[in-house]
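Narrative progress, year one. The postdoctoral researcher (J.K.) led the effort to move from monomer predictions toward full complexes, under supervision of the PI. The following entry was the first complex the group processed end to end, covering 547 residues in total.
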Amino acid sequence: MREILEILENNARTTPEDIAKMLHRTPASVKSDIKKLERDGIILKYKTIINKELLREEESGVRALIEVKVVPQKNLGFDHIAERIYQFPEVTSCYLMSGTYDLLIIVEGKNLNTVSNFVAQKLSSMENIRGTSTHFILKKYKEDRDILKQVQKNKRPAISL
Amino acid sequence: MKKQTISKIVEDLPPSGIRVFFDLVIGMKDVISLGVGEPDFVTPWNIREAAIYAIEQGYTSYTSNKGLLELRQDISKYLKHRYDLDYDPEREILITVGVSEAYDLAMRALINRDDKILVPEPSYVAYGPIASLCGGTPVYIKSQASKGFKITADEIGRLCDAKTKGLVLNYPNNPTGASYSKAELMKIASVVEKRDLIMISDEIYCDLTYDFDHTPFPTLPRMKERTVYLNGFSKSYAMTGWRIGYAAGPEKIIQAMTKVHQYTMLCASIVAQAAAQEALKNGDRAVQEMKREYKRRREFVITRLNEIGLSCHKPEGAFYAFPSIKGTGLSSMDFAQRLLKKEKVAAVPGTAFGSTGEGYLRMSYANSFDNLKEAMNRIERFLRKL
C-alpha cells in the first residue's frame, strides 16, 4: 500500500497496469488496493500541480500567510473556530500551530485588495479572534517538494559504459 | 618520426569496437538513451552543500596521499558497522580517483610480467586492458546465460595455472546485473584459496542489490588477507562526476598501491573527499530512496522486455537489464544500430563487454520512468516491424 501511495504521490497518472509491473503484482490487486485507499479516504483526490509562477499576473492571483490569534472556546478548543475559518473558499490551507500564534491560514485571492478585504471584513471581525498578522507571498520557489523553476536537466553523456 | 611513436603495448590493446556506434548516438537528437552507465539522479543536496562549504572554508590544498584521514576513518567505521569488517584507516585504506584508479593501482602493484589475471566476461571494459598495460595477461572466464551470467568455482579452477595471480570479480555486475549470494561466494572463495589467488573485488554496485543482502568478499573466512576490496561513492550516492573511490586491503598491498598513487595521482580532490564524508555520514536515506526507485524500474523493465519477446533474466543488482536478442537473428551491433535509427532508442551492444555479450544488449534503467516506458513501447514497435 505504502509503495502505491509513494508512486501515485509522485505521479497520479501512473496507471494501475504500470504500478503492477513496477511492484511485480497483478493489475487487479493493485486496482483493488487503490479502490480501498480511495474508499478509506486515504487517497483524497487526484490533482494537477500548476506552476502559477508561469501564468500572467492577473491569472495567477496572490497568496498570503495569515497568523491568527484565537481565544479558545470552552469544550470546543480551537477546532470550532478553525472550522468556521476554513469553510471560506478563499482559505486554501489551515493549520493549528504551536508557538506565538494559534492558526496559520493561507488565503488566495485575485489581487491584494481581495485578500485585504477578506482579512478586514471576514476574519478580523469574527468572534474570538484576538488578532491577525498578514504576510503576502512575493515569490514561490518551491511548493510541496516541487521546485518551480525550470530545472536544468542533468547533463550526463548520452552513452557511457 | 621514424621511430614507432605509440608504445607497442598500447597499440596492441583491443580497440573499442563500438566507438562508431557511440558517435552515432551522440550525433542524434531526441534519442532515449538506455546506454548510460551512471545514475540519472543528481548527487543529494546535503552532499553538494558540504562540498560548497568545504570550498568556502578554504579546502583547496592537497590531502595526504592516502586521502583525508577523517574520510578513511569514516570509511573504516562504516565497513565495521555495516559488515563487521576491520580495516585500519592509517594503513589499510586508500582513497582513489574512482574505483577505476583503484583497480589500475591494484594491477600495477600486483602484476609481474606475464602474470595472468582472470576476468569474467561479460564485464566492465577496463579490467582486461589495464592488466595488459601492466604487462600481465587477462584470461577471460566466459560466463553462461544459462547460469545467470555467474562464473563458477569449476571454471575458475580449470583456467588456473602456475602463472595465475589473481581474480577480478565485479558484483553486482556491469553489464549483466548478476550478483552472488553468500553461498555462491563461499564456493568461489574456496577455489581462490586453493589456487592461492589474490582477489580483486569490485563492489561498486553493492548498495544496489535487490533480492538478498550483499556479502563483501573480505567477510568470507580467510579471504580478507588475500582480497583487495574496491568500492566508491559513484553509484550508491549518485556521485560519478566526483571521482571518489577507495581500496581496502592487506597493508602490504595498500602500501604498494599508495606508492604508485603518490607518483601518479598524488591524491584525490579534497573537495570531493569532503563531499564523500558527508555522503557516509548523512547519505543513507537518499541511497535507500534511490534503491527503491531502481527496484521498481527493474521490475517494470524486466516484465516489459519479457512481455515483448526479448527474454531477460532478472538482474540481482546494479541498474542494467541484459536481454537476449538472439530470437531476432540479428547481431548485437546490428540490432542496436537499427533500433537507434528506426526508433531512436540507444542501447549498448553486449559485445562492448566482450565476445560473450554477442546476442545481448545492455539497457540501463537509470532513467526516468516515463522514458523507460516510452523506450519499451518503441522497442516493441521495432520488434513487430522486423
